[in-house]
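forwarding from the other thread:

> can someone predict this with zinc ion?

sure thing
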Amino acid sequence: MNPARISPSILSADFARLGEEVRSVIDAGADMIHFDVMDNHYVPNLTIGPLVCSAIRPHTQAPIDVHLMVKPVDRIIPDFASAGANIISFHPEASEHIDRTLALIRDSGCKAGLVFNPGTPLHYLDHVMDRLDLILLMSVNPGFGGQGFIPETLKKIAAVRSRIDQSGRDIWLEVDGGIKIDNIREIARAGADTFVAGSAIFGAKNYSEVIAAMRSEIQQASEAM
Ligand code: DX5
Ligand code: ZN
């Protein structure tokens, strides 16, 4: 399996000091920056867009992992690519033409990801595995940080892990929502390799302590397998 990656969600960062927060969390050992884009239409909240992505880009070399919770999707993709995004993921319900949107992301020079809400079936994967670099499973309903992990997600992680393994492709399996030190081990054991955490990291005083504790839990999951 891929080495584990931790992707802190800046949704829970101090927006008034965003550049500094990005630098601190990467210095604390995070692998990339999870960037939650909400439009008050596809989800009931409004956050940040390409201008903010451009603003944080000079603060880190780490990949910027853009999670689009917007509808429609296509028009905004080139803007995020120009703003320095490295990975762009979207929800299949938010695109009329999933295959086209995935191609557009890769043609813009980014890695492409498909995101599944807790109630979204996995059949959207059936005909697009060759177009994917990442599958993102939501373990909360999208729209807000600080919600509780939905346990049913563990079965879905295992199902996606076996689909990825059967495909033989290098597709990352990311999980987003309610991830904490005390549940990350079972999420890793179910087959995730990329972990989004917002409130668990930015809500703590010491980011490196949380990230180190998360890595140690993930390591224990792989030792137990
Ligand atoms: C929810 C967002 C998540 C959120 C995670 O819609 O996609 O990335 O920020 O936050 P926590 O880790 O606090 O659940
Ligand atoms: Zn997210």
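The longest helix spans residues 207-224. thats all i got for now
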